[in-house]
Amino acid sequence: MKLFKHCLFIALIAFASIARGEVFTFTAIPDEDETQLKLRFEKVARYLEKELGVEVKYLPVKSYSAAVTAFRNNQVQLAWFGGLSGVQARRLVPGSDAIAQGFEDQFFKSYFIAHKSAGLTPTTGFPGMSGLTFTFGSKDSTSGRLMPQFYIERNLGKRPKEIFSRIGFSGDHSRTIALVQSGVYQVGAVNYKVWETAVAKGKVDTNKVEIVWETPSYPDYQWTVRAGVNDVYGEGFKTRLTQTLLDMNDPELLASFPRKSFVPAVNQDYLPIEELAQSIGLLD
Asked: Where is the signal peptide (predicted)?
């Protein structure tokens, strides 16, 4: 009987939503290969649609800043952000909230990877990199830019442009790995999850490129929902959305992130990210 009532409730919500022509749209920062992202988030859209009883669409974007802009302009009502992009979005749309994060996102980290030509070896101390070429990921990436730059400046006492002979921004973590592996850049900073997934799939030649240093842990990715969703999709929608994300337990879907589960998140979890971004000039 309880199952019947739940199904009836979802069906009524779906009917009301369709009658009003409402679509719930979400996006995600493009942190790796576009094909992989499309496969992952179209599965997420189908899961949300089934559980929430509203039409759900995934909106792909070309850059981190485009994801933030789509959120600001109400083109999307939910986004899978990194730590920094989430902070940026919530500052632009007051009342928006981080509601869920991957279990691993509570203690995320970045890897510094180096091509063999750099002459660097794995170290627990910070590697000397003066005069080498270096690529970050996206300019707005937490794991590919913010945290690596913070640790570079803290450990070497200089801005990156004063340390490296050439600096690049690859745009995403998959490209960072490819650029360092090919020798276009000697050193790069990469999201540890993307690196480990690429290694597991045989996409990294560890005879050419290896991890030389890893950062201490920090909070990173999260689902952020836009302010006002209850007004559009019905009372209690935000609560049901949050629980639906926390209940995501399909092994295949979780593996595509990859995360073991999703856990609650709140805006305060990302205050350290906001403070660090301000300290190195990435936020006003």
From this structure: 1-21
